[in-house]
Amino acid sequence: MAGARALGIFEQMVKINSIAEIRMGITLRGRDATRAVENGSCRLVRISDVSQDGTWLNADFAQIEPAERIREEQFLRSGDVLFPNRGTRTTAIVFRLDTIRTIAGAQFFVLRPEASRVLPEYLAWFLRTEESARHFEGRRKGTYVQIVERRDLEELELPLPPLEVQRKIVDVACLAVEERILGEKLATLKARLVAGELLGAARGGERHGDTDTRTNTD
Which residues have a Cβ under 8 Å from the Cβ of 167 and sit 6 or more positions away? Predict the structure, then answer.
């Protein structure tokens, strides 16, 4: 989807920091701070858990035992938007899981939207658009690891239509993702079916060749 403007519903443009609280994820100190441990008291979301299209690649988050105390407001709440600030991918996802005592590390910005003005799913959708990708493309810093700075996220502008229009955009975007996923699954099944048929034909041809050989011998 090209963006909210392309849908003919352009309204006002606002900066993200005017509609959402933005904070850095938690910096976990210590060499083994993010190491998975059995029965850890917290769960940690990693960048690798998030797909490009804003779905969970893994929702069974690693259990960890932080050395420092985690404040209550640092745990993720339903509706928080996670935006990776490292790497070259521009993606975002809404936390809507029942997993308790879950935190995001410093590799994420955590956005807590103002519910009366913007839907978390709409904000995450816009952060995944090509328009957002272009905004961050020229602003990422770093040689080996590309980093998005907080001010670059704060200054990103997005169109802010009424909530009911935001909801329609989100619904259409979700359908597009589902369609793509189903298409990929169908393509995989077709490929397996064709491979199976070809293999069956090859084996059938091999048996036919053996029969011809025996007939010629007789």
Answer: 119, 122
Q: Residue for token digits 């009911």? A: 164
User: What is the reported pLDDT for 55?
Assistant: 93
Give the highest mean pLDDT range of 9-23, 111-125, 174-188: 111-125
C-alpha torsion 29→83→154→86, nearest 10: 60
Give whole-number Cα distances, 162 to 9, 45, 171, in Å.
9, 31, 15
Residue showing tokens 């099944």: 189
**What does R_g of the chain's alpha carbons equal in angstroms?**
24
> Residue 216 phi/psi, 5° resolution?
-65, -35
Chain Cα centroid distance, residue 159: 21
Over residues 8-26, the mean pLDDT reads 86
CB 161 within 8 A of CB 4: yes
Hey, is 13 helix, strand or coil?
strand
- Please report which confidence band the pLDDT of residue 180 belongs to, taking 50, 70 and 90 as the band edges: confident
Full set of structural domains in the chain with CATH: 5-161 (3.90.220.20)
